[in-house]
Amino acid sequence: MNQDGTPDVGHALVDQMRLFSRRITVLAAAGCTTCCGEQISPLQGQILFEIQRQATPSMHQVAAELGMDITTFSRQIKNLEARGLLTRQRSPADRRVSRLSLTRSGNELMERISRHMANGIARPLAALTPFEQDTVVRSLALLNQALNVARNHPHRPLE
Prior knowledge:
It holds the Pfam family MarR_2. The protein is mainly α. The protein is about 65% helix and about 5% strand. It has a single domain (about 20-150), classed as Arc Repressor Mutant, subunit A, CATH 1.10.10. It has a two-stranded antiparallel ribbon. The mean pLDDT is about 85.
């Protein structure tokens, strides 16, 4: 509660996000280890997801997006590359920059993980009405957008 007796939305949201994050991480871990026959950690799954989402990003872009230091990130990339899930190519514009992309195996693995995750989310969503389902999706999109703005402009007030 705030000093004026109104609910503290920030704390309530943080509590709900912690629960959601823990539950989605458990679902992702199950998807990364059971559905595909691959031993992919949730972190490696996030790396592959970001590479797929950003379409040939640099190593630094993905590491920054995930909040990882480049040394730790580089070790993960070497592991995933050795497993044939991604490739690194030097940027023609700047030879110091490595661009990442998923291989056919990496894309197929991400498709299997995505199907597993979608099926895992579909069960609890089935208890909601179509309107509630749409509200959840739109609310998460708005929250992600606001968090992205806050991350990119930490001193700018949110509108």
